[in-house]
Amino acid sequence: MATCKYCGQSAGLFSRAHKACEEKHDRGVKGMGDLMRRYFGDSVSAADLKAKIERNRLPYFLSEYDIADAAIIALSAYGETLHRPYGQNVLPKIKAFLSSISVPYSRLNQKGDLDKLGQKLFQGYVVDFFAKGVPLSQIRISTDSVTSVLPLSQQKKDEAYYNVLNKAADKFMSNGSLSDNEQQLIESYTGSLGIALNCLPMQYQSESLARIGQAMVLKDLQQGILPKNPLTVPVMLGRGECALWVYDNVTMFQEKIVREYQGGSRGMSYRICKGITYRTGSFKGRPVERSSMDKVGVGSLVITNKHFFFHCPTASVKIPYSKLVGVTPYSDGLEVHKEEAKPKRTVFQGFDAWFVMNVLNQVNNL
What we know:
43% of the residues lie in helices and 26% in strands. The chain has twelve helices and nine strands. The protein has helices at 19-40, 46-57, 64-81, 90-101, 105-108, 113-126, 128-131, 136-149, 154-172, 180-193, 207-222, 354-363, and strands at residues 2-3, 10-12, 243-273, 276-304, 307-312, 315-320, 324-330, 333-338, 346-349. The strands form two sheets. A seven-stranded antiparallel beta sheet has the order 6-5-4-3-9-8-7, covered by helices on one side. Helix 1 (19-40) packs antiparallel against helix 2 (46-57), helix 1 runs parallel beside helix 3 and helix 6 crosses helix 9. The model has no long low-confidence stretch (mean pLDDT 87).
Protein backbone atom coordinates (compact mmCIF):
# COMPACT_ATOMS: atom_id res chain seq x y z
CA MET A 1 0.00 0.00 0.00
CA ALA A 2 1.32 3.48 -0.93
CA THR A 3 1.38 6.31 1.59
CA CYS A 4 0.24 9.89 1.01
CA LYS A 5 3.21 12.15 0.35
CA TYR A 6 1.52 14.88 2.38
CA CYS A 7 0.07 13.32 5.51
CA GLY A 8 2.00 10.04 5.52
CA GLN A 9 -1.11 7.88 5.90
CA SER A 10 -2.18 5.03 3.64
CA ALA A 11 -3.33 6.37 0.27
CA GLY A 12 -4.46 3.18 -1.47
CA LEU A 13 -2.86 0.77 -3.88
CA PHE A 14 -2.11 3.06 -6.81
CA SER A 15 -2.24 6.56 -5.28
CA ARG A 16 0.59 8.67 -3.89
CA ALA A 17 -1.60 11.33 -2.25
CA HIS A 18 -5.08 11.86 -0.88
CA LYS A 19 -7.11 14.19 -3.03
CA ALA A 20 -8.12 16.23 0.03
CA CYS A 21 -4.49 16.54 1.14
CA GLU A 22 -3.40 17.61 -2.33
CA GLU A 23 -6.12 20.24 -2.54
CA LYS A 24 -5.20 21.53 0.91
CA HIS A 25 -1.53 21.71 -0.07
CA ASP A 26 -2.40 23.64 -3.23
CA ARG A 27 -4.45 26.14 -1.20
CA GLY A 28 -1.53 26.54 1.17
CA VAL A 29 0.93 27.23 -1.68
CA LYS A 30 -1.43 29.79 -3.22
CA GLY A 31 -2.02 31.44 0.14
CA MET A 32 1.72 31.59 0.77
CA GLY A 33 2.27 33.37 -2.55
CA ASP A 34 -0.51 35.85 -1.81
CA LEU A 35 0.91 36.50 1.65
CA MET A 36 4.37 37.27 0.27
CA ARG A 37 2.99 39.60 -2.39
CA ARG A 38 1.05 41.46 0.29
CA TYR A 39 4.27 41.81 2.29
CA PHE A 40 5.99 43.55 -0.61
CA GLY A 41 2.84 45.61 -1.08
CA ASP A 42 3.28 46.90 2.51
CA SER A 43 0.04 45.35 3.79
CA VAL A 44 1.73 42.61 5.88
CA SER A 45 4.59 43.18 8.32
CA ALA A 46 7.70 41.03 8.53
CA ALA A 47 6.60 39.74 11.94
CA ASP A 48 3.16 38.72 10.60
CA LEU A 49 4.79 37.08 7.58
CA LYS A 50 7.04 34.96 9.76
CA ALA A 51 4.25 34.02 12.16
CA LYS A 52 1.84 32.95 9.40
CA ILE A 53 4.49 30.89 7.62
CA GLU A 54 5.21 29.00 10.84
CA ARG A 55 1.50 28.59 11.61
CA ASN A 56 0.58 27.28 8.15
CA ARG A 57 3.63 25.14 7.42
CA LEU A 58 2.38 21.88 8.98
CA PRO A 59 -1.41 22.16 8.49
CA TYR A 60 -0.96 22.80 4.75
CA PHE A 61 1.95 20.38 4.29
CA LEU A 62 4.28 23.15 3.12
CA SER A 63 7.87 22.04 2.54
CA GLU A 64 10.96 24.22 2.46
CA TYR A 65 10.91 23.86 -1.33
CA ASP A 66 7.33 25.17 -1.48
CA ILE A 67 8.26 28.23 0.57
CA ALA A 68 11.42 28.78 -1.48
CA ASP A 69 9.54 28.62 -4.81
CA ALA A 70 6.92 31.11 -3.57
CA ALA A 71 9.66 33.40 -2.24
CA ILE A 72 11.56 33.41 -5.53
CA ILE A 73 8.40 34.34 -7.44
CA ALA A 74 7.62 37.13 -4.97
CA LEU A 75 11.18 38.51 -5.01
CA SER A 76 11.33 38.45 -8.80
CA ALA A 77 8.00 40.28 -9.06
CA TYR A 78 9.20 42.85 -6.54
CA GLY A 79 12.43 43.30 -8.45
CA GLU A 80 10.49 44.09 -11.62
CA THR A 81 8.80 47.02 -9.84
CA LEU A 82 12.09 48.61 -8.75
CA HIS A 83 13.36 51.58 -10.72
CA ARG A 84 16.04 54.16 -10.03
CA PRO A 85 16.35 56.03 -7.78
CA TYR A 86 15.80 53.26 -5.23
CA GLY A 87 14.02 54.11 -2.00
CA GLN A 88 15.79 53.80 1.33
CA ASN A 89 13.48 50.98 2.44
CA VAL A 90 14.26 48.61 -0.48
CA LEU A 91 17.21 46.73 1.05
CA PRO A 92 15.78 46.62 4.61
CA LYS A 93 12.55 45.18 3.16
CA ILE A 94 14.43 42.45 1.26
CA LYS A 95 16.62 41.69 4.29
CA ALA A 96 13.61 41.35 6.61
CA PHE A 97 11.87 39.12 4.06
CA LEU A 98 14.82 36.74 3.79
CA SER A 99 15.01 36.55 7.57
CA SER A 100 11.28 35.89 7.96
CA ILE A 101 10.96 32.97 5.54
CA SER A 102 13.86 31.01 7.13
CA VAL A 103 15.03 29.39 3.87
CA PRO A 104 18.77 28.90 3.21
CA TYR A 105 20.16 31.55 0.87
CA SER A 106 21.81 28.92 -1.32
CA ARG A 107 18.46 27.26 -1.99
CA LEU A 108 16.81 30.54 -2.95
CA ASN A 109 19.72 31.36 -5.24
CA GLN A 110 20.02 27.90 -6.75
CA LYS A 111 19.17 29.24 -10.23
CA GLY A 112 20.75 32.67 -9.73
CA ASP A 113 17.52 34.54 -8.95
CA LEU A 114 19.02 36.45 -6.03
CA ASP A 115 22.16 37.21 -8.05
CA LYS A 116 19.96 38.76 -10.72
CA LEU A 117 18.19 40.98 -8.18
CA GLY A 118 21.46 41.90 -6.50
CA GLN A 119 23.10 42.83 -9.81
CA LYS A 120 20.15 45.03 -10.73
CA LEU A 121 20.44 47.01 -7.49
CA PHE A 122 24.26 47.08 -7.62
CA GLN A 123 24.26 48.30 -11.21
CA GLY A 124 21.55 50.85 -10.49
CA TYR A 125 23.75 52.57 -7.92
CA VAL A 126 26.83 52.47 -10.19
CA VAL A 127 24.87 54.22 -12.96
CA ASP A 128 24.76 57.32 -10.73
CA PHE A 129 28.44 57.91 -11.56
CA PHE A 130 27.51 58.84 -15.13
CA ALA A 131 23.92 59.97 -14.52
CA LYS A 132 24.51 62.20 -11.49
CA GLY A 133 28.28 62.55 -11.18
CA VAL A 134 28.36 60.70 -7.84
CA PRO A 135 31.98 59.72 -7.01
CA LEU A 136 32.74 56.00 -7.05
CA SER A 137 33.98 56.23 -3.46
CA GLN A 138 30.47 57.27 -2.40
CA ILE A 139 28.81 54.76 -4.71
CA ARG A 140 30.78 51.95 -3.05
CA ILE A 141 28.96 52.70 0.21
CA SER A 142 25.66 51.95 -1.55
CA THR A 143 26.94 48.89 -3.41
CA ASP A 144 28.41 47.49 -0.18
CA SER A 145 24.97 47.78 1.40
CA VAL A 146 23.57 45.76 -1.51
CA THR A 147 26.12 42.96 -1.17
CA SER A 148 25.61 42.82 2.60
CA VAL A 149 22.04 41.66 1.89
CA LEU A 150 22.47 40.02 -1.53
CA PRO A 151 26.07 38.73 -1.72
CA LEU A 152 27.67 38.87 -5.17
CA SER A 153 30.82 37.20 -6.43
CA GLN A 154 33.57 39.39 -7.85
CA GLN A 155 32.62 38.15 -11.31
CA LYS A 156 29.04 39.36 -10.84
CA LYS A 157 30.28 42.74 -9.60
CA ASP A 158 32.60 43.04 -12.60
CA GLU A 159 29.69 42.25 -14.92
CA ALA A 160 27.72 45.10 -13.37
CA TYR A 161 30.62 47.56 -13.71
CA TYR A 162 31.24 46.59 -17.34
CA ASN A 163 27.52 46.71 -18.21
CA VAL A 164 27.32 50.28 -16.93
CA LEU A 165 30.46 51.19 -18.87
CA ASN A 166 29.06 49.73 -22.08
CA LYS A 167 25.77 51.60 -21.68
CA ALA A 168 27.64 54.86 -21.11
CA ALA A 169 29.78 54.19 -24.19
CA ASP A 170 26.71 53.56 -26.36
CA LYS A 171 25.14 56.80 -25.16
CA PHE A 172 28.31 58.88 -25.61
CA MET A 173 28.97 57.52 -29.11
CA SER A 174 25.37 57.80 -30.33
CA ASN A 175 26.28 61.07 -32.10
CA GLY A 176 29.52 59.64 -33.49
CA SER A 177 31.93 61.72 -31.37
CA LEU A 178 33.29 61.91 -27.82
CA SER A 179 33.38 65.23 -25.96
CA ASP A 180 36.20 66.16 -23.59
CA ASN A 181 33.85 65.91 -20.59
CA GLU A 182 32.68 62.46 -21.66
CA GLN A 183 36.28 61.34 -22.11
CA GLN A 184 37.14 62.58 -18.62
CA LEU A 185 34.23 60.59 -17.17
CA ILE A 186 35.34 57.43 -18.95
CA GLU A 187 38.97 57.91 -17.85
CA SER A 188 37.97 58.55 -14.24
CA TYR A 189 35.69 55.49 -14.17
CA THR A 190 38.16 53.10 -15.79
CA GLY A 191 41.08 54.49 -13.80
CA SER A 192 39.29 54.01 -10.48
CA LEU A 193 38.34 50.42 -11.35
CA GLY A 194 41.62 49.49 -13.02
CA ILE A 195 39.96 48.81 -16.39
CA ALA A 196 42.06 48.99 -19.56
CA LEU A 197 39.91 49.82 -22.58
CA ASN A 198 42.58 48.58 -24.98
CA CYS A 199 42.61 45.09 -23.47
CA LEU A 200 39.07 44.27 -22.37
CA PRO A 201 37.90 40.72 -21.64
CA MET A 202 36.12 39.45 -24.75
CA GLN A 203 32.74 39.04 -23.04
CA TYR A 204 32.67 42.75 -22.19
CA GLN A 205 33.85 44.16 -25.50
CA SER A 206 31.48 46.29 -27.55
CA GLU A 207 31.87 48.39 -30.67
CA SER A 208 31.16 51.67 -28.85
CA LEU A 209 33.58 50.89 -26.04
CA ALA A 210 36.30 49.88 -28.48
CA ARG A 211 35.80 53.10 -30.44
CA ILE A 212 36.11 55.17 -27.27
CA GLY A 213 39.26 53.38 -26.16
CA GLN A 214 40.81 53.71 -29.60
CA ALA A 215 39.87 57.38 -29.86
CA MET A 216 41.55 58.04 -26.51
CA VAL A 217 44.75 56.29 -27.64
CA LEU A 218 44.77 58.26 -30.90
CA LYS A 219 44.29 61.55 -29.03
CA ASP A 220 47.37 60.77 -26.95
CA LEU A 221 49.37 59.89 -30.07
CA GLN A 222 48.30 63.14 -31.76
CA GLN A 223 49.77 65.00 -28.79
CA GLY A 224 53.00 63.04 -29.12
CA ILE A 225 52.55 60.96 -25.99
CA LEU A 226 52.09 57.26 -25.36
CA PRO A 227 49.19 55.84 -23.30
CA LYS A 228 49.61 56.29 -19.55
CA ASN A 229 48.60 52.73 -18.65
CA PRO A 230 50.78 50.25 -20.58
CA LEU A 231 49.32 46.85 -21.33
CA THR A 232 50.61 43.47 -20.27
CA VAL A 233 51.00 41.48 -23.48
CA PRO A 234 52.32 37.99 -24.32
CA VAL A 235 55.30 39.33 -26.32
CA MET A 236 58.65 40.93 -25.52
CA LEU A 237 58.63 44.67 -26.14
CA GLY A 238 61.72 46.70 -26.91
CA ARG A 239 62.99 49.78 -25.16
CA GLY A 240 60.66 52.73 -25.66
CA GLU A 241 57.97 50.43 -27.04
CA CYS A 242 54.40 50.54 -25.77
CA ALA A 243 51.45 48.27 -26.53
CA LEU A 244 48.56 50.40 -27.82
CA TRP A 245 45.85 47.81 -28.50
CA VAL A 246 45.29 44.05 -28.49
CA TYR A 247 42.95 42.24 -30.88
CA ASP A 248 41.95 38.71 -29.93
CA ASN A 249 40.80 35.89 -32.22
CA VAL A 250 42.76 37.25 -35.19
CA THR A 251 43.62 34.83 -38.00
CA MET A 252 46.96 35.21 -39.76
CA PHE A 253 47.46 34.05 -43.36
CA GLN A 254 50.76 34.02 -45.20
CA GLU A 255 51.48 33.43 -48.86
CA LYS A 256 53.19 30.17 -49.70
CA ILE A 257 54.92 29.80 -53.07
CA VAL A 258 55.57 26.34 -54.51
CA ARG A 259 57.90 25.93 -57.51
CA GLU A 260 57.72 22.86 -59.73
CA TYR A 261 58.85 21.89 -63.21
CA GLN A 262 56.48 20.90 -65.96
CA GLY A 263 57.56 19.38 -69.27
CA GLY A 264 58.43 16.07 -70.95
CA SER A 265 61.22 13.98 -72.38
CA ARG A 266 61.78 11.86 -75.44
CA GLY A 267 64.34 9.32 -76.57
CA MET A 268 65.05 5.59 -76.33
CA SER A 269 66.25 3.25 -73.59
CA TYR A 270 68.81 0.44 -74.15
CA ARG A 271 69.29 -2.42 -71.74
CA ILE A 272 72.98 -3.04 -71.22
CA CYS A 273 72.77 -5.80 -68.64
CA LYS A 274 70.55 -6.84 -65.79
CA GLY A 275 69.66 -3.78 -63.71
CA ILE A 276 71.46 -1.26 -65.97
CA THR A 277 69.70 0.78 -68.65
CA TYR A 278 71.14 3.53 -70.87
CA ARG A 279 68.74 6.23 -72.02
CA THR A 280 69.21 8.68 -74.88
CA GLY A 281 67.15 11.77 -75.47
CA SER A 282 66.52 15.11 -73.73
CA PHE A 283 64.24 16.73 -71.11
CA LYS A 284 62.45 19.96 -71.91
CA GLY A 285 60.57 21.70 -69.13
CA ARG A 286 59.82 25.04 -67.52
CA PRO A 287 59.53 26.17 -63.90
CA VAL A 288 55.96 26.91 -62.72
CA GLU A 289 55.11 28.76 -59.53
CA ARG A 290 51.90 28.30 -57.57
CA SER A 291 50.93 30.47 -54.63
CA SER A 292 48.33 29.98 -51.88
CA MET A 293 47.38 31.76 -48.68
CA ASP A 294 48.10 29.35 -45.84
CA LYS A 295 46.60 29.77 -42.39
CA VAL A 296 49.33 30.36 -39.80
CA GLY A 297 47.02 30.28 -36.80
CA VAL A 298 44.47 32.12 -34.64
CA GLY A 299 45.78 34.30 -31.84
CA SER A 300 46.37 37.84 -30.60
CA LEU A 301 47.48 40.78 -32.72
CA VAL A 302 49.32 43.35 -30.60
CA ILE A 303 49.59 46.88 -31.99
CA THR A 304 52.52 48.84 -30.55
CA ASN A 305 54.12 52.13 -31.47
CA LYS A 306 56.83 50.22 -33.39
CA HIS A 307 55.62 46.79 -34.46
CA PHE A 308 52.82 44.40 -35.30
CA PHE A 309 53.12 41.36 -33.06
CA PHE A 310 51.13 38.24 -33.85
CA HIS A 311 51.17 35.53 -31.19
CA CYS A 312 49.40 32.16 -31.24
CA PRO A 313 50.20 28.69 -29.84
CA THR A 314 52.02 27.66 -33.02
CA ALA A 315 53.78 30.87 -34.12
CA SER A 316 55.03 34.30 -33.08
CA VAL A 317 55.64 36.94 -35.74
CA LYS A 318 57.03 40.48 -35.41
CA ILE A 319 56.70 43.00 -38.24
CA PRO A 320 58.48 46.37 -37.78
CA TYR A 321 56.63 49.39 -39.16
CA SER A 322 59.98 50.53 -40.58
CA LYS A 323 59.94 47.51 -42.92
CA LEU A 324 56.47 48.20 -44.31
CA VAL A 325 56.18 49.43 -47.89
CA GLY A 326 52.39 49.38 -47.92
CA VAL A 327 49.23 48.37 -46.06
CA THR A 328 45.92 47.41 -47.67
CA PRO A 329 42.90 47.75 -45.32
CA TYR A 330 39.89 45.43 -45.69
CA SER A 331 36.49 45.46 -44.05
CA ASP A 332 37.58 42.68 -41.68
CA GLY A 333 41.35 43.07 -41.46
CA LEU A 334 44.38 44.22 -43.41
CA GLU A 335 47.21 43.03 -45.63
CA VAL A 336 50.76 44.19 -45.00
CA HIS A 337 53.46 44.46 -47.65
CA LYS A 338 57.00 44.14 -46.32
CA GLU A 339 60.31 45.26 -47.75
CA GLU A 340 61.88 41.91 -48.63
CA ALA A 341 63.98 40.40 -51.40
CA LYS A 342 61.18 37.93 -52.12
CA PRO A 343 58.10 39.55 -50.61
CA LYS A 344 55.19 37.36 -49.54
CA ARG A 345 51.67 38.53 -48.80
CA THR A 346 50.68 38.59 -45.12
CA VAL A 347 47.04 39.06 -44.07
CA PHE A 348 45.50 39.54 -40.61
CA GLN A 349 41.75 38.92 -40.44
CA GLY A 350 39.16 39.44 -37.71
CA PHE A 351 39.04 43.16 -36.80
CA ASP A 352 38.24 46.65 -38.08
CA ALA A 353 41.40 48.16 -39.60
CA TRP A 354 40.31 51.78 -38.95
CA PHE A 355 42.30 52.13 -35.72
CA VAL A 356 45.44 50.46 -37.10
CA MET A 357 45.53 52.73 -40.15
CA ASN A 358 45.27 55.79 -37.89
CA VAL A 359 48.02 54.46 -35.63
CA LEU A 360 50.35 54.03 -38.61
CA ASN A 361 49.67 57.63 -39.61
CA GLN A 362 50.47 58.91 -36.12
CA VAL A 363 53.48 56.85 -35.02
CA ASN A 364 55.66 58.48 -37.65
CA ASN A 365 55.22 61.76 -35.77
CA LEU A 366 56.41 60.41 -32.42
